[in-house]
Specification:
By secondary structure, the protein is of the alpha/beta class. Helix content is 37%, strand content 27%. It is built from 15 helices and 20 strands. The N and C termini lie far apart (59 Å). The relative contact order is 0.12. Bound molecules: NADP nicotinamide-adenine-dinucleotide phosphate and L-homoserine.
């Protein structure tokens, strides 16, 4: 006899009769939530206001048992009973009634320790925490496997876009060759507002914070750290190797000036923060930096806080996954989706997804050995021989020029701006050319250096 435990009764009975199964007394799945901010409040709101629907899909009643916050007296954006709130982590982590811990607080410590404590206590974990998963994911997943519990982290990468589950299930027949992505909603929003409305970066960042896209410290977004954590997670899953965030080359968007958007557009490009990883023999490439992206490329058309992930697998070919990469509601969609999936497998007593195994022996290629195209904006004296001197530096570094354009001129100091794009070259040579040009007597500044994607 197949027995399933369903609740609440009305929905459960309907579900059971649809399946033609026999119900036993319902035993709810008790969940502890850590964090009630932008994401946590949307997770709680969904669980509290849509309980019967979620429980029916999970096949078991989902019960929000306790919510851990820093300050229980703080005004909340949702209506929640004060009895549910606690500032004491042990009320969740050491509570034998809690079977699933959902962590949507963020940051490395104490959240890494909380997740570890939950696993050691035999609890399943769902987290949106990319910092913890990027830095400690393989160890936590190993610990979870040892305790026969699962760690789900769909919301850690790409907000509401189903990425982890796609890699973990639908694409598992593939050898993944490369992943290129716009994976930070805040920087994409900021770059978009700077390009379209001419907004100063600080104002655009403030808007992204107000919309709930930014990390607690927005320099995590602007500096490319958030995208680096996400790329570390994606690359680790895609290749089943351990890619640590500190192995990934990282540059943020801080140095981009309004004029670069104009020049880029004239050349047929948008500027995006790109996270890119690619398989090479015995090693992988992994880098995060702003780049000029051809207006023809789908990643150039990603707007606002959207994310887009371009995956190439040997069987499937190219797949593009697009959606809202930041914000409370899209992220809650991923967290609560994980909970339903997890609840179903707990109920069936099986792991619904294959577990990970990570090969330690594959390293990341140093950035100097990577081949890429580049864009330089150079302010120089407007006099004979300057172009020749610059051309000579590129030639001596083995860098082939793709386009060389003289742009704006300033009559007060007789300077002009040159914009140079190159063919693919070794990053080390591109950097050497940049340093050598900056030292040339007629060069005032190499004002911008960006890769062309
Ligand atoms: P948030 O708005 O800053 O909220 C953080 C919540 O965690 C707050 O409720 C805070 O409590 C609580 N908290 C923080 N430290 C705590 C501690 N030591 N003990 C107990 N509670 C603690 O953050 P968020 O934007 O919701 O982000 C949460 C997580 O989701 C982060 O890992 C983030 O990277 C990830 N994420 C966010 C987004 C997004 O668009 N926001 C998207 C994807 C993933 P108080 O309210 O009492 O201060
Ligand atoms: N701060 C992150 C972003 C939130 O802007 O993409 C989603 O992880």
């Amino acid at each position: 006899m197949l027995v399933v435990s369903l609740a609440p009764a009305a929905d459960g009975a309907k579900y059971a009769s649809e399946l033609g199964v026999v119900t036993s007394a319902p035993r709810p799945l008790n969940v502890g939530l850590i964090g009630l901010g932008t994401v946590g409040s949307q997770v709680a709101e969904r669980m509290l206001s849509w309980g019967p629907q979620l429980s029916r899909r999970a096949g078991v009643e989902l019960c929000l048992q306790k919510v851990l916050v820093r300050d229980v007296a703080k005004r909340r954006t949702i209506e929640i009973s004060p009895d549910l709130l606690t500032a004491d982590p042990s009320e969740i982590l050491e509570n034998p009634a809690v079977e699933v811990v959902m962590e949507v607080a963020g940051g490395d410590e104490p959240m890494r320790s909380y997740i570890e404590r939950a696993i050691h206590a035999g609890k399943h974990v769902i987290t949106a925490n990319k910092v913890v998963m990027a830095k400690h994911g393989p160890e936590l997943l190993d610990a979870a496997a040892g305790k026969n519990v699962d760690v789900y982290f769909e919301a850690a990468v790409g907000g509401g876009i189903p990425l982890i589950s796609t890699f973990r299930t639908d694409l598992q027949a593939n050898r993944i060759e490369r992943v290129s992505a716009v994976i930070n909603g805040t920087t994409n929003y900021v770059l978009g507002r700077m390009a379209s409305a001419g907004l100063p970066m600080a104002d655009a960042v403030r808007e992204a914070q107000e919309a709930g896209y930014a990390e607690a410290d927005p320099s995590d977004d602007i500096g490319g750290f958030d995208a680096t954590y996400k790329l570390a997670i994606l690359a680790s899953i895609a290749y089943e190797i351990k890619v640590r965030p500190d192995e990934i080359y990282r540059e943020g968007i801080e140095g981009i000036e309004p004029v670069d958007f104009r020049y880029a557009r004239e050349l047929g490009y948008a500027i995006k923060l790109i996270a890119h990883t690619q398989r090479h023999p015995g090693r992988v490439e992994a880098r995060v930096h702003p780049a000029l992206v051809s207006l023809e490329h789908p990643l150039a058309r990603v707007e606002g806080a959207e994310n887009a992930v371009f995956v190439e697998g040997d069987l499937v070919g190219q797949v593009l996954l697009v959606g809202q990469g930041a914000g409370g509601r899209p992220t809650a969609s991923a967290v609560v989706g994980d909970l339903i999936d997890l609840a179903r497998s707990i109920r069936r007593g099986v792991q619904s997804r294959p577990s990970f195994s990570f090969d330690d022996r594959v390293g990341v290629i140093p950035i100097g050995e990577v081949k890429t195209r580049a864009y330089y904006r150079i302010r120089v004296d407007d006099r004979p021989g300057v172009l020749a001197a610059i051309g000579q530096v590129f030639a001596e570094e083995g860098v082939s020029i793709s386009s060389f354009i003289q742009k704006d001129a300033w009559s007060h100091d007789m300077t002009v701006e040159l914009v140079v794009t190159t063919h693919p070259s070794l990053e080390a040579s591109l950097q050497k050319a940049r340093e050598r040009m900056a030292r040339l007597e007629p060069v005032h500044a190499v004002s911008a250096f960006l890769r062309v994607f």
